[in-house]
Amino acid sequence: MGKPLFSPKSVFWRVNRELACTFAAPRAVLMQIAHPLVAAGVAEHSQFRKHRFARLYRTSMAAAAITFGSRDFALRAVRTINQKHRAVHGVLSAPSGIFPAGTPYDANDPELKLWVLSTITDSTLLVYELFVSKLSTADREQYYADSLRVTELFGIPEQQARPDDTSWTGAEIRSCCRLAALLACPDAPQGARVASARREQRFTRRCVRPVGGRGCSPPRSHSRGNAG
Predict the structure, then answer these.
(1) What's the pTM value of the predicted model, to 2 decimals?
(2) In this structure, are residues 27 and 218 in contact, taking their beta carbons and an 8 Å threshold?
(3) How many structural domains is the chain composed of?
(4) 53: closest CA among 200, 209, 204?
């Protein structure tokens, strides 16, 4: 199959190989559909409600192919994803969160792909530290550096994927978490896509049981108008 894209000695391989990290997928999906443009694509171009675990399964399989497969195998997985996403585009028919009606969305938009990959990175690190062990700052930075190779595979421009400060501290992904909470907060406009996103969130939560009393949901707003 060729040389693996990531070394078995890498932090990326060490973290992603843990079975506990499968719990990252439900949280990542919830964060993904907190973004109104992602939610619109899911609502209009998938059977998420009918095939409730399909997206979780596809996310996990794609992550495994990229982490443990060769570069060629990983590129084939990315091409398959991009090809399926070509049909996922449209416009918002009503305001959703911070996006006005008429805002176009496209599943192959680099910004939306970066959002999706960021939710996976953040959720995986969170779940690993909850259920396996704490990571040092150096390990977290190395994991992030490895994740940039994935953004490269998906064709996301380097200037979009990297923070201005190349010595990453986690601020970029934490800002994604806060934005997810903001977009899903109770005072967001009641547009059709916001309502759809909330339905998908409730539906997904119904399928996910907390582990050890701890849920894997994205950060919640603690008060109206405050993203936490």
Answers:
(1) 0.72
(2) yes
(3) 1
(4) 204
Q: Answer yes or no: is 140 within a domain.
A: yes
* 166 in a structural domain: yes
State which residues form the domain around 96: 13-207
pLDDT tens digits for range 167-224: 444 544 544 454 454 444 434 444 444 454 455 444 444 433 333 333 333 333 333 3
Q: Which residues contact 217 (CB under 8 A, 6 or more apart)?
A: 27, 30, 205
Cα gap 154→189, rounded to integer Å: 32
Question: In 3D, which of 183, 170, 160, 64 has the Cα closest to residue 126?
Answer: 170
Hey, how many other C-beta atoms are within 10 angstroms of the C-beta on 208?
A: 19
Q: Could you write out the DSSP letters of every residue in 154-180?
A: TT--HHHHS-SSSS--SHHHHHHHHHH
Q: How far apart are CA 173 and CA 146, in angstroms?
A: 14
How far is residue 97's CA from residue 86's CA, in Å, rounded to a whole number? 24
Q: What proportions of the chain, in percent to the nearest 5, are helix, strand and coil?
A: 60, 5, 35
